[in-house]
């Protein structure tokens, strides 16, 4: 397993809104993303945005089931790729997710 694939799968597994496990299909998709030249930061940003969208739902909204597959973020990757998102926004997503995780633990 390449460092790219490992990083994607670890990020997926460790998301607070994910199921906490990785399936073979997730590994195949991560390998495909790597072979297509999808930047790792973009994939991680899509995972962060997916988690944030679930965490920042309106009060009283019914909870959503955990993210069970890397395929869930495919449309978000497309969203962030057209046009290519500013790297500063990806950093913002990472920091915002960390802040929301800290907030949810209190």
List keywords for this structure.
106 residues; 63% helix; 0% strand
Please tell me about this protein's structure:
By secondary structure, the protein is mainly alpha-helical. The chain has one domain (3-58, 65-105). It has helices at residues 3-14, 24-35, 40-55, 74-81, 87-105. The model has no long low-confidence stretch (mean pLDDT 92).
Number of helices: 5
- Identify low-pLDDT runs: none
Helical content class: 55-70%
Binned strand content: under 5%
User: Sheet with the most strands?
Assistant: none
Cα(first) to Cα(last) distance is 36 Å
Q: What's the alpha carbon Rg, rounded to whole Å?
A: 14 Å
Extended strand count: 0
Q: What is the count of structural domains?
A: 1
Order of helices and strands: HHHHH
Mean pLDDT comes to 92
Shape: globular
Structural class label: mainly alpha
Question: How are the elements arranged and paired?
Answer:
Elements: H1 3-14, H2 24-35, H3 40-55, H4 74-81, H5 87-105
Task: Describe, in short, the structure shown.
The chain is built from five helices and no strands.
């Amino acid at each position: 397993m390449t460092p790219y694939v490992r990083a994607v799968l670890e990020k997926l597994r460790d998301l607070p809104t994910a199921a906490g496990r990785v399936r073979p299909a997730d590994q195949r998709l991560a390998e495909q993303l790597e072979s297509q030249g999808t930047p790792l930061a973009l994939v991680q940003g899509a995972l962060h945005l997916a988690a944030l969208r679930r965490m920042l739902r309106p009060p009283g909204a019914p909870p959503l089931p955990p993210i069970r597959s890397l395929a869930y973020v495919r449309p978000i990757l497309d969203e962030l790729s057209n046009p290519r998102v500013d790297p500063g926004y990806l950093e913002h997503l990472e920091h915002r997710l960390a802040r929301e995780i800290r907030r949810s633990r209190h």
